[in-house]
Amino acid sequence: MPEFSYTARTISGEDVVGKITAGSKRETLMALAEQSLFPVRVESAEPRRRRWVLNARVKPSLVATNLNQLADLLQNGVPLMASLGILADQCTNSRLKEVLGDIRDRVAEGSSLDEAFAVHPEVFNDLTVSMVRAGSEGAFLEDALKRTADFLELQEELKGRIVGAMAYPAFLAAAGFIVTVVLIVFFVPKFEGLFERLQRQGGGLPPATVILLTMSDVLSRFGVFLLALAAGVLIWVKQWLDTERGRLFLDRWKLTIPVAGKIFLGSAVSRFCRVLGTLLKNGVPLLRALEISSDSAGNLVLARAIRESAENISAGQTLSRPLAECGLIPKPVMAMISVAEQSNNLDEVLVNIADGIDRKTARQLDIMVRLVEPAMLLVMGSVIMFVLVALLLPVFDMSATMG
Q1: Does any domain span residue 261?
Q2: Per-residue pLDDT at 234
Q3: Which of 15, 208, 299, 382 to pair with 143, CA 20 to 30 A apart?
């Protein structure tokens, strides 16, 4: 059985420190009460072991499956603690098995389910934690778990489509980059003797050839250092993007990308509308629902705009007016939200809006992917053409001079 350390106060007001063996934190509190001790601090004396220190991640599809199973167990009357224990015992993924066991222990110690989920952000994202919190507060936990699982599966399906569609363009980009580097580093230096003879004979080199020779010289001398510098910059950028300021910059920049910016914005608005509609349908107050749905949007720029709108709503305004002022939500969506507020069916309309945005986003994604492949071919062909032209121009000039 686990051991807990405690700081408690006696009836006379003296503080005592000790350790006690109990099945859970709750049992520890009960044992202290039987001894007429008032607990001030109780925590596990055994450090929590984490074997998942590496950056490996549990697949969202596996998380969705376990959330669905948890919802089914709860709907059939199985207590939460027993349900978590069953999931932990039957899980075949070792890392998720330990995470579920840790969640069960935390819930047994008195933590809420969403608090236990929040301890593992590498497995349960903000959307999952927010939906579970809302479900716990609004007494619709089973429905919240199922809807969260549906969201995760939908995102995985969309991600799979993107990865599958971008596989060929990514292969073209990688192949083009490797071929270009090999040409510049290993093939171009073989022409340096020829180019030097041309210069000694009084013929100048074309600007494209000069640029190509400079690139070849730089890569040959400092290629390793440039590679190390690029790796260091990437690590620094990744760490900076993990900060709130970096995430805000990235989310704002993503919305400005041609074509792709509309897709990112549509995805964020869809998540916001779907979560908000779900929460309102289950009786969560509007301000609380806005707080949770803004965190679930997946874009800090939109989330901040929604929170600012919530401040105006608390001052007596409707939802549509402050949301329209932020300028991020499309006008057709705002028109539907305004009409829905007047007809008092906002929860249903928000879910329908999310479905419509998802369909439109899927079409835009297909168009973007179709454009990426010829664009990559054009870029790769242009780069290789530049290398070949820069190499052959001096030869053509020499032939013309000799002729």
Answers
A1: yes
A2: 92
A3: 299
pLDDT at 229: 93
d(CA 6, CA 10): 13
- Residue 319 in any domain: the answer is yes
Residue 284 to residue 83: CA distance in whole angstroms: 25
**Gyration radius from the chain CA atoms:** 30
Quick one: 28 and 151 in the same domain?
A: no
Query: Tokens at residue 112, please?
Result: 């809420």
DSSP 8-state class, residue 92: -
Domain that holds residue 131: 60-155
User: Is the dihedral angle over the CA atoms 313, 318, 319, 320 positive or is it negative?
Assistant: negative
How far, in Å, are 60, 119, 124, 127 from residue 114 at the CA level? 17, 9, 10, 11
106: closest CA among 127, 123, 84, 125? 84
CATH (domain of 377): 1.20.81.30
Structure tokens at 34: 């039987």
- pLDDT tens-digit series, residues 286-305: 777 787 777 777 788 888 88
- Given 100, 121, 155, the domain boundary residue is 155
Query: Is there a single domain that holds both residue 244 and residue 367?
Result: yes
Cα–Cα nearest to 248, from 298, 290, 307, 309: 298
Decide if 51 is inside a domain.
no
Q: Are residues 189 and 148 in the same domain?
A: no
DSSP string, 167-230: HHHHHHHHHHHHHHHHIIIIIGGGGHHHHHHHHHTTPPPPHHHHHHHHHHHHHHHHHHHHHHHH
User: With contact defined as beta carbons under 8 Å apart, do 76 and 153 qualify?
Assistant: no
Q: Read off the pLDDT of residues 167-199 as tens digits, 9 standing for 90 and up.
A: 877 888 888 888 888 888 888 888 777 777 777
Q: What is the tally of structural domains in the chain?
A: 3
As given in the structure block, the two tokens for residue 297 are 């949007």
Kindly report, residue by residue over 120-130, the tens digit of the pLDDT.
888 887 778 87
What number of residues does the chain have?
Answer: 403
Kindly state whether residue 172 falls inside one of the protein's structural domains: no
